[in-house]
Amino acid sequence: MFVQVIRGKVKDPSAMQGRLDAWKRDLGPGAKGWLGATMGTTDDGTYINVVRFESEDAAKANSERPEQGQWWQETEKLFDGPVAFYNCPRVEVFRDGGSDQAGFVQVMVFKPSDVDKIVALNKEFEKVADQRPDILGGVQAIATDGTVIDTNYFTSEAAARQGESMDMPPEMQKTFAEFQKVAGDTEFIDLKNPTLMSP
């Protein structure tokens, strides 16, 4: 799997939603290797789009389509300021990965001191997943510059918050503390009304 991430500030989330609906209707059927996308806008206007492809070649082929370029030329006008792009050739999937059944999505963005350590620690968290029925799955994408974009899918925000408040076993508390240390400063992007697309 290969992941592309786009993020920036938008003033009109409804206009952006219209552009996304147009992409799925007009361009989606011709996007070979497109597996799905998770996107949304936070309360402060932060927009993020996590797009999944079968491979890097499929993502590149989609970007090179003339109709994709035309779509982006119009869509880019909706951003208020610079737009950041992340190409992620390394992808780790948690449980079933991205889920179109999610009612709440939380994206964590950080640049760890040790990527391999973060991947290993993330696998440790899978061991407690059975105790958290609110967790549907996740996709951990590692960008070429070392940035990690963790997209986590939950049944609902209320269920996720309740799950967060549960006491973790001592060994998992230790793992979580180590994760925080290696991850460093982490930005949390909460998508309370996520748009979930699949072919």
Give me a quick take on this structure.
The chain has six helices and ten strands. It is α+β, with helices and mostly antiparallel strands and 199 residues long.
Order of strands in the sheet with the most strands? 4-1-3-2-10
Give the low-confidence spans: none
Q: Give the distance, in angstroms, between the N- and C-terminal Cα atoms.
A: 15 Å
The CATH topology of the largest domain turns out to be Alpha-Beta Plaits
Helix content: 25-40%
Q: What does the model show?
A:
This protein is an alpha+beta fold. The protein has 2 domains: 2-88, Alpha-Beta Plaits (2-Layer Sandwich), CATH 3.30.70.100; 90-192, Alpha-Beta Plaits (2-Layer Sandwich). Helix content is 33%, strand content 33%. The protein contains 6 helices and 10 strands. The protein has helices spanning 13-27, 56-63, 66-75, 115-125, 157-164, 170-183; strands spanning 2-9, 34-41, 46-53, 84-88, 90-95, 104-110, 135-142, 148-154, 186-191, 195-197. A 5-stranded antiparallel β-sheet has the order 4-1-3-2-10. A hairpin with a 5-residue loop joins β7 (135-142) and β8. It is globular, with a radius of gyration of 17 Å. The chain starts with a strand and ends with a strand.
